[in-house]
Amino acid sequence: MATLRKQxxxxxxxxxxxxxxxxxxLPLYHAATLYSYGNAVQLYPEGFVLKRGQALTxxxxxxxxxxxxxxxxxxxxxxxxxxxxxxxxxxxxxRPGDFPKGRRALVLCIGESTxxxxxxxxxxxxxxxxxxxxxxxxxxxxxHGIKISCLGTNTMKDAxxxxxxxxxxxxxxxxxxxxxxxxxxxxxxxWHFFNSEAMWYALGLQGVTGKDFAKEAxxxxxxxRTPFGKYPVDEHPSLLEFAKSVSGRYGYPVLSGSVQExxxxxxKNPINEFYSLSAARxxxxxxxxxxxxxxxxxxxxxxxxxxxxxxNPAGERVRGKDGKYYRIGxxxxxxxxxxxxxxxxxxxxxxxxxxxDGDSASSVEATAGSLQSLLSCFPxxxxxxxxxxxPGACFPEAWAPSYLPRQYSVNGNNARVMxxxxxxxxxxxxxxxxxxxxxxxxxxxxSQHQEKFRDGVLDCSINDVHTGYYGQMSAAxxxxxxxxxxxxxxx
Length: 491
Fold this sequence. Notes:
Blueprint: H1 2-19, E1 34-36, E2 41-43, E3 56-58, E4 64-66, E5 72-79, E6 84-93, E7 104-111, H2 113-116, H3 133-144, E8 147-151, E9 166-167, H4 173-178, H5 196-202, H6 205-209, H7 217-224, H8 237-246, H9 259-268, H10 277-282, H11 289-296, E10 317-319, E11 325-327, H12 335-340, E12 348-352, H13 364-375, E13 383-385, E14 403-405, H14 412-427, E15 434-436, E16 452-454, E17 457-460, H15 469-489
Parallel strand pairs: 1-6, 7-8, 7-9, 7-12, 12-13, 13-15, 14-17
Antiparallel strand pairs: 2-4, 3-5, 5-6, 10-11, 16-17
């Protein structure tokens, strides 16, 4: 790090001398509360970058470390043109010994591709310390002797760690909230996702509004707020064409009759584990935790696995080890699934959704409202949300020779994500049941999905929007710090 400091100081001295500009106030993307479980918290300047063209250092370096034994810390952000600003960062530290022994945490983990990606330790190729933020958080807690159970429908095949999650790459908040399947208002979405035009007619919005889809802003916002199944679908060529293209593939039903019958079959057997047709028809969204439990329950509400001798245990009524009776999920159709899936009513929920909202055609206001609605679907359960930053460093050369990172800059996606999160933060002000975790500012910038470690150099310059092992570890530490704080605060 001594060499790194010299390099980055040299860069800034040269830039300031050439530009000879006076110090001025620097606009920043402000940090929120950070969590610790006794570990120092790393901060990176990339998290504070707010506008295109900014290239920052933090305390004159490429990173800084905040001790866990202080409630707050001041850091200095400096741009390449010499403009600077001070930022005060709040830290909440809860050590494993700060709450009574024996407290459990049943944590439902929901996410997008940054949750379902698999990242080994790039230097060893090992998965022993986890492969995503969920499993990493579980591995750290095991080292502390704290019982955390990660709940969900999926995990890495043949994983030694028991860490489950439910995740879908490419899904936006409104996809989880209102759709039985993949749907995204983004021209770059995969072809088997519902696109904007097909979404309009599948939601029945031509019949509701009397308008054809014309790519207008109000139409995108109305789609964000409308659950699939609330209105009859419109018979339109674009919807029929989409249904034909995915018929019997990617989890979609076979199109054998009318498009209305196909849409009803999709709603009754959704790909989205949380989708509920009755919720869509009766309420303001289609997301249902109860529907999820009905389909996938494998544990009693103390987190212990249900036992059933049937080859197909789906729907069986059994007694849990807590003495209560439960029905095994209707989609748990084999003993293998009964052992693999880990689902019960959670004590806590962590949602990692948001990067795909940055590509949506809906307004910032409507998209933030969608996230707010999604996070409000767990009444009575403390819920946390975070979003990960795109990889890259402000000064890739400052990380040489040990790292080969890509360049970080504000693009359309992360500019929108920051705007959405600022709006969401305002919407949730005063609520103590939902926490917005600030992974953005402490996520390692020299971490890249598919990164390669060769000859002592970590090559994380690949053109991929997903973080790698170290970025995932950054998220795991924030989630675990928040969970320990919740465990301490729980009466």
